[in-house]
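Sequence in, structure out.
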Amino acid sequence: MDGIQNYLPHDVIEGILSRLPVKSLLRFKCVCKQWSATISAPKFAQTHLRRSKNSSSTILLVDLENSPEKAQLVDLETEQFRHSAVDYPVEVSVADVMCHCDGLYVLWCSDRGYALWNPSRRSYKMLNYQQYRFDHDQLMCGICYDPLVEDYNVVMADSTHYAVFHCRRNCWSDLKELNLSITIRYDVDDASGLPLKNGSIYWLRCVWGEGEVLRYEIVYFDGRDEEMKILCKADGDSFPVRMISSGECLRFFARDWDDQWVEMAMPPAAAAPAMPFGGGYAPLCWTHDGGKILLESSKDNSLQIYDVSEKSLARVGYPWNVLILHEHRPRLFPHVENVFWD
């Protein structure tokens, strides 16, 4: 170690370390105290994360009922779409990914409650809020990064209350009432909130009345004051709506009467680039590098990649059709290596 320090300044060493995979970083923490402190520092974690995002076209597939593995990481940049199995962190009968951000995932573990999972580190921590039992059937869950305090926040909310878990501090906020003036039933097709880089989390919810969808609402968590708010409302119809995020902006899609996917004009979509991939494809998720969108063809259920810069479509060779069982489809999440947390 002394020999290395004699030839290389520490900032050069830090730059080299920031380009390494998490598995190597965990080993190199044992080299010396200085390396361990560097790798554990929040600023190093963000530098490493930025580099990982710029080169990451990996997705996480979960809920694979037609596969021996429950989850897989798939690299979309490799010619054969190299994939590797990922084990859930706890021994439970049922586990479900509730939300994600920067390669971190909140799991609902039926036997033990909620857990924050980092597949890159193969580590987890339980998130059970002992003072209050959230209504799981009405749960909204999201996770985002707060750049002001260099920490991740996990937000859990049901129809009446919400609370925030501060990951690095390992503590919950006080329970807060959910004052959104909601008087009629909500239906949540996907309780997973989508984070943006400004430290906010967005959910798309249906408001029902008299057996039909009255409108859609975008509910969001404002990280600046840790309050839940309504961003906007849009008239609803009987067709499903889908929301995807690049981290920079949100996009909204719905099925029209011809069973085609069309983009909806809902803020803040105006800041997003045009994506003319046609109505015969259902948007699934955006890769972390912001350059690719995963789509499913309505013709043959094949998986397609839309390249935003090239404005081109390419069929994915990964055996997507093999994983589809009747109406069941695996869930997809953009994945990136993240060294957080100690």
